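Minutes, project check-in
Item: structure for the 603-residue chain
Input as provided by the requester:
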Amino acid sequence: MTLNTTLASVTERIITRSAPTRGAYLERMRAAQSNGPARAHLTCSGQAHAYAAAGPDQAALAKASAGHLGIITAYNDMLSAHQPFETYPQIVRDAVRKVGGTAQVAGGVPAMCDGVTQGEAGMELSLFSRDAIAMSTAIGLSHNTFDAAVFLGVCDKIVPGLVIGAQVFGHLPAVFLPAGPMVSGLANDEKAKIRQKYAMGEVGREELLKAEMSAYHGPGTCTFYGTANTNQMLMEFMGLHLPGSSFINPGTELREALTQEGARRALSLSALGNAYTPVCDVLDEKAFANGIAGLMATGGSTNLLIHLIAMARAGGIILDWQDFSDLSEVVPLLARVYPNGLADVNHFHAAGGLGYMIGEMLANGLLHPDTKTVAGDGLSNYVTEPFLTDDGLEWRRGTDQSLNEGICRPVSDPFQPTGGLSRLTGSLGTAVMKISAVAEEHRIVEAPVRIFHDQDDAKAAFKAGEFTGDVIIVVRFQGPKANGMPELHSLTPMLSIMQGRGQKVALVTDGRMSGASGKVPAAIHVVPEALDGGPIAYMQDGDLLRVDALAGTLDILTPDVTKRDPATANLSANAYGMGRELFSPFRQLVGSADTGASVFGDL
């Protein structure tokens, strides 16, 4: 199948744009490859320190003859998605010993739950935690004793942070080992209805808590298609998971077998063998183009519009939102998973899942087939799915037909002809909107604005009955430099209620929305942000604004707005408490949302 011309041209544009930084990055990685792990070059005292706690592996490590695997883990039992990782290190150690290798936990990285911190002060650390995770990864691998690494992480900022850290050590092979989604509980749409009833005062907190605990009820990722599960999709489309491994439930024999095989596979890719495949060769420009195409085809989380840019820059690859927008124009929406539909990720997996989608997209020229992956050369490895037999794991060709066209559809009959993203530009600046779940009649909103500097003030105005007509709610001073760019997902119930009443309503913000949001039009990640003096800082209550996802525009209709003095905000309350004081350097150094909102710049 001939490659789609837009995919080819966007990829070539990325390659050309990235040539200087990508070339410098690869030069550093080749130098690191030639040096190799420094176990043999450590002093006797250094080696003794490195192996002291290795137990039965001490002798093998001292000989420096066996492949040694580093484990970077985001385990904690605060996150349901990461609780299964508690047992993974021993599973990994046992698996590699059987093939003559060794493994050690190189380090742990922090992992916070955005579901717990929604609307709370702790959410202001969430985005910055990604870069802290990358730094923690680097600390863990800095001992320079490993031939390859496995990465245990699933959720929102964790996988992007691990990918950034892995690329700094891009001369090492890297395999990402997922934990899988929790089994299905209360349907996500039923949970959303209870949230709306609570926002309207129709049910009490006891009923709300009961519904939430019925939806989030056990180990594994939350089952809606938010940032965590979008991460898992990307790891398959970009070749860092074993094929078909993303959505296998925790606690199953197949899940454990995949963890064992992932550990063995990582060692097999090291420079000690004949199939050396460092992560710097896996994550090239084509892999990132494939990741963007997967994001569009599945209607994935808007958070990845920031994270993919930051992840790419760690490998010297420069992406911009126009790349996403152009690919969105040619990649159709092939999946409906909540909040874009009623199905959860378990239903999606059963209907054919990622293997079916990758097969469809490859057959129609919407993915680069010639990428390197941890499963071997070529993305065609990822149209297979794993099975556990008496002889162990084996991969078989997956379905080439959707098993439920209400969840997955072929390219010839998509849910919509374009992907889930609209890039908006105009006199207010540049923003992005996830439109895969926004009905077409809601994609253009022209209305007066109400301005807020805090999401709690917007919710208070709603409870006071102040929103009676068409309105665009602007929540500003929510960018990365202002307060760490917290998600504003807690605004979703009130916005949904207003839209359900027949009001024309939209959200415009220089902050973020969650991957769980979608049915209300939200122009997010506005740049320049208010703290940088962007036009959003000059708007006042009653100004007219037009949000047009169809034309891709975001325009202030009231004349001479930017001739006013810009608004200022007292952000002192965002500087302290819940650890925020420790992240003051991050707020001072962070780049804009369209460059990845990272403190690292171009690595």
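Outcome recorded: Residues 185-217 form one domain.
No further action items on this chain.
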